[in-house]
Amino acid sequence: MKRIFLIISLFLLFDVSLAQGNKYDSAAIFLMDRMSDVIGDLEACSFTVNTAVDDNDFDHGMVRHYGTSEVHMLGPDKMLVITKNKKGHRQYMYNGTQLAYYSFTENNYGMIDAPPTIMEAIDKIHLDYGIDFPAADFFYPTFTDDMIALFDEIRYLGIEIVDGKECFHLLARNKDRSAQVWINNDAFTLPAKMLIVDSTEGHPQIESTYSNWHINPVLPDAMFDFLPPAGATRLTIVAKNEQ
Fold it and tell me: Could you tell me the pLDDT band of residue 6, with boundaries at 50, 70 and 90?
């Protein structure tokens, strides 16, 4: 890790502006690019995401909700997400042709035809059905470019301890919101935490913590093929534009 610290130290001597009027710290850009390169080279991975999401409730004001997700990805076309939050215990299973939704809480399921890669499927399902997937932002190969497009300023703030581990701390902001990213200071430089704060009334936050990373685990194909449990009810999942 000494080499990474040396590169960051050199970058800090030459803070650059990538667009007139916008400030982008070259050390922060380097760290995001390195994280994206590692994620892009993974053949498979498993990890846990714990989330805390603020919701401006009409009756109770700002209320925070917690959830946890177990995520498994294999190659470009297989994904399993098991989620527990206020909406119940659910799973999403993608096998390269279809996404299967199953509610453990209600014992019902639905099937959606999906594009042939994970990222294409995530985009289409979010656009058509409003379904979000944990940690999806980090898996886009354009993550750094997307951050530059979204924020007017991106800075490297130094080393922080997150859950007992050293992390690189980055801050991005514009007039509407700020985002902080903590990246593990180890050989893999994978994400450890992300915090998004909105500038609207009450300053609602979304915090995600990433842990239990397993790099290139053995994940059998059968994990990603859905078989409806006995007695489960099949639902018709309707796209937003068809409602």
Answer: very low
Q: CA 37 to CA 77: how far, in whole Å?
A: 19
pLDDT of residue 22: 59
pTM: 0.88
Among candidates 94, 81, 190, 186, which has minimal Cα distance to 139? 190
Indicate whether 9 belongs to any domain. Answer: no
Neighbouring CB atoms inside 10 A of 58's CB total 5
**Gyration radius from the chain CA atoms:** 19
Q: Is residue 5 part of a domain?
A: no
**Which DSSP state fits 60?**
T
Collapsing DSSP to helix, strand or coil, 116 comes out as coil
Alpha carbons 129 and 134: distance in angstroms, whole number: 15
- Which domain, by its residues, includes 155? 15-242
Domain count along the chain = 1
